[in-house]
Amino acid sequence: MKVTVTTRSGRELINGGLDIDTTATVADLEDAIHQRIKKYHPSRQRLTLPHHPQSKEKPIVLQYKKVLKDYTNGNSDTITIVFKDLGPQVSYRTLFFFEYLGPLLLYPLFYYFPVYQYLGYQTKHVIYPVQTYTLYYWCLHYFKRIMETFFVHRFSHATSPVSNVFRNCAYYWTFACFIAYYVNHPLYMPVSEFQMKIGFGFGLIMQVANLYCHIILRNLRGRNGNGGYQIPRGFLFNFVTCANYTTEIYQWLGFNVATQTVAGYIFLVVAASIMTNWALAKHRRLKKLFDGKEGRPKYPQRWVILPPFL
Ligand SMILES: NC(=O)c1ccc[n+]([C@@H]2O[C@H](COP(=O)([O-])OP(=O)(O)OC[C@H]3O[C@@H](n4cnc5c(N)ncnc54)[C@H](OP(=O)(O)O)[C@@H]3O)[C@@H](O)[C@H]2O)c1
């Protein structure tokens, strides 16, 4: 089978094309491209069918497990494929690990080390119980996220661009320092013990609920991430599409009730708006996938992320 591989501008990527077996899969084609051009590891290749530039439809992305011939519409001898270089990639686990490792290591620096003396504060540093509990709560949260990354989540996408590591680390690491700076500050004023207990108690319940939501999502897929997107059911998913985000937002709310800093509330608002955008997209995707037509189930009536508002 003759495969012509072009770039998006129409230039031939491999002069003369490739001859591959008629039973070859898209993964085999990716390997063949990699053999010819060493820098294009399969993880950074995006292969699509040719697509009219004026068309409003999105180009069809080739699925790596599918047999290439299935994309030829009956003409099994030749096919043209459009190649896009996605750039250097890292696995999702690596991406998540580094973005969570920063907060886990940076926060304790502000608690254990005399950071504020270096910044010119000479006052005697009294450590309130809430500051110690916040350290435990914070570390537990990010430790849980790292554990979930390795032992719970079943990602459908193998890799992400390296540039996302820098972007996501900048986001998490900066907020970690920003919050740690204010919570551990020598001039920090603690809330009442009652308020602290309510905040941390509620936050911890939400962290456990969040873990349970992640286990429900995990069980929607096979071991190697197979199974695509399913309708999440059970527990809070019977009411909310993105119950994992709902519990995440509420656990940060609990954290802020207990610690009460402007920095913490800014993080809550930013994180909630990011998750709301993602939740709207996930809700739309599930409604589109499960439209109730041609034997497909209909996506049930649910809140998106924050009942009773959205
Ligand atoms: N504080 C913050 O700023 C912030 C922001 C975002 C997330 N988080 C936390 O990090 C956690 C993970 O975030 P995330 O954005 O990766 O969560 P997510 O996209 O909702 O999903 C977590 C895992 O479940 C899978 N999944 C989701 N919906 C599914 C469905 N309908 N069918 C089958 N599998 C499904 C995802 O697969 P895919 O690989 O296909 O996506 C992913 O592997 C969140 O739940 C939240 O606790 C915090």
From TrEMBL:
GO CC aspect terms: endoplasmic reticulum; endoplasmic reticulum membrane
Transmembrane segments: 94-113, 125-143, 164-182, 194-213, 234-253, 259-280
Keywords from the UniProt entry: Lipid biosynthesis, Lipid metabolism, Membrane, NADP, Oxidoreductase, Transmembrane, Transmembrane helix
One GO process term, biological-process aspect: very long-chain fatty acid biosynthetic process
Protein origin, superkingdom: Eukaryota
InterPro entries listed in its UniProt record: 3-oxo-5_a-steroid_4-DH_C, SRD5A/TECR, Ubiquitin-like_dom, Ubiquitin-like_domsf
EC number, as in UniProt: 1.3.1.-
Domain Ubiquitin-like: 1-88
Major location (coarse): endoplasmic reticulum
Record carries keyword Transport: no
Membrane topology classification: Multi-pass membrane protein
Residue ranges that the Swiss-Prot or TrEMBL entry lists as coiled coil: none
Single GO MF annotation: very-long-chain enoyl-CoA reductase activity
Subcellular location: Endoplasmic reticulum membrane
Family: Belongs to the steroid 5-alpha reductase family.
Protein name: Oxidoreductase
Originating organism: Helianthus annuus (Common sunflower)
Lineage: Eukaryota, Viridiplantae, Streptophyta, Embryophyta, Tracheophyta
